[in-house]
Amino acid sequence: MEGLRLNKYISDSGFCSRREADALIAQGRVTINGHTAQVGEKVPQGARVAVNGKTISQADTKVYLAVYKPVGIICTADPREPLNIVTYLNHKQRIFPIGRLDKDSEGLILMTSDGDIVNRVLRAQGNHEKEYQVRVDKPITPDFLRRMARGVPVLGQVTLPATIHKTGENAFTLILVQGLNRQIRRMCEYLGYTVTHLKRVRVMNIRLGRMQPGHYRDLTQEELSTLLATLEEGEAE
């Protein structure tokens, strides 16, 4: 039986994404049965794969989680960061976040042991929606709503058109199809506003619902099937 490509073997183990696995392989940090592996190599059945000398194995079942990230927790798997979300959750399987949500924000982040889906979601950036509830430091004007919807300069580019609805004197919901670093905060700052509270309540078809900060749940089969189907549609375009 022909073995799996090494980068997929590593991603299926939950160690990291395929892209990160290729980087580790290229750096000479991965071995198969003791020999230094090469990018594109396949793993024979029963072989021992190690990263930095530590043996890894494929997980029996893949995990797909909806997580309510509290304010203060950082969306990284880097153990050098004491407030990293992986250590915070302390899940029995090795999992990592899909995308990011900044330290000062709260709400929905997806996490998984499936390195392949991480790459697929990241490749779909610009093609899937994320919904936020936002409060700012002063009353919202019609001009603010128009300019947020149309796009404003952020990090050397104009943000893509967004959907915005005012929900209170100082509050609104915003649906983005981008994920620029601290995008909403930067957009508001450009227009003279400061974000005082930001919560993500939806990623694609997955909703935060009534979850509480620090809690997580497995995606339902329907949620996962719809998510995968949406990604496949995006890849086919």
Low-confidence stretches: none
Radius of gyration from the CA trace? 20 Å
The number of domains: 3
Estimate the strand proportion. Answer: 25-35%
CATH topology of the largest domain: Alpha-Beta Plaits
CATH class of the largest domain: Alpha Beta
Oligomer category: single chain
How many β-strands, per DSSP?
A: 17
Query: What is the terminal separation in angstroms?
Result: 33 Å
Helix content: 25-40%
Overall geometric form? elongated
DSSP summary: helix tally = 7
The average pLDDT score comes to: 89
CATH superfamily of the largest domain: Pseudouridine synthase I, catalytic domain, N-terminal subdomain
What is the level-2 CATH architecture name of the largest domain?
Answer: 2-Layer Sandwich
Order of helices and strands: EHHEEEEEEHEEHEHEEEEHEEEH
Could you give the topology of this structure?
Blueprint: E1 4-5, H1 6-12, H2 18-26, E2 30-32, E3 35-36, E4 42-43, E5 49-51, E6 54-56, E7 64-69, H3 85-89, E8 96-98, E9 106-112, H4 115-123, E10 130-136, H5 142-150, E11 153-154, E12 157-158, E13 163-168, E14 171-176, H6 183-190, E15 195-203, E16 206-207, E17 216-218, H7 221-236
Parallel strand pairs: 9-15
Antiparallel strand pairs: 1-4, 2-3, 2-5, 5-6, 7-9, 7-17, 8-9, 10-14, 10-15, 11-12, 13-14, 15-16
Helix pairs in contact: 1-2
